Amino acid sequence: MRSSSRDHSLSDSAELDRSYDPLTDSDAEDGELSTVYCRPEGLDQLMQQTKFNRRELRILYREFKNECPSGRVNEETFKTVYSKFFPHGDSSMYAHFLFQAFDVQNNGVVSFEDFVSGLSIILRGSVTDKLNWAFNLYDINKDGCITKEEMTDIMHSIYNMMGKHTHPSMRDSAPQEHVDLFFRDENIMQSMHMFDDVI
After folding, report:
1. Which pairs from 32-38 meet CB under 8 Å and 24+ separation?
2. What's the pTM value of the predicted model, to 2 decimals?
3. Are 121 and 110 spatial neighbours (Cβ–Cβ below 8 Å)?
4. Which end of the chain is less packed: N or C, by CB atoms within 10 Å?
5. Does residue 75 surpass a pLDDT of 90?
């Protein structure tokens, strides 16, 4: 535990050399400083912007920094990390779509703020927020519509991610059959048209 004089000196020096990390409540080692390029917004600000508490944000940040020491993740690294959760399938296409949804600034990188904001919506957002986020995921070309082709691409990516070793095993035609069924169901299509007014 630090003494109050050390706390004071850290708060003074942290703004100058950025060696103190308020999210992890730790000092960066000299070797680590050279790899940290992007630091997140203040912890209090992130708590206001998301539905995570201080402890949860610190845990998420530590894990994010372990995988992405620069404070930002590019698409290839995102795909590599995501593939660890689905070792029996090919998650690369679905990870691509997820990355695009998290990359809200459309600059080819996802910062910790981008990641934790999206995660907050997915896990703890309102129904409307979750629907908007999911719509953004499925609207691959970002034209405001989800086409049958976009839905097919997403479904294929999900089936590829799950792998061929599912039980019961899936037919190769299953993704297309699901999309066809979705677009033939009048109740679903009416619901989608009602959703137009919400967005």
Report:
1. 32/69, 35/69, 35/70, 36/65, 36/69, 36/70, 36/71, 37/70, 37/71, 37/72, 38/70, 38/71, 38/72, 38/111, 38/112
2. 0.72
3. no
4. N
5. yes
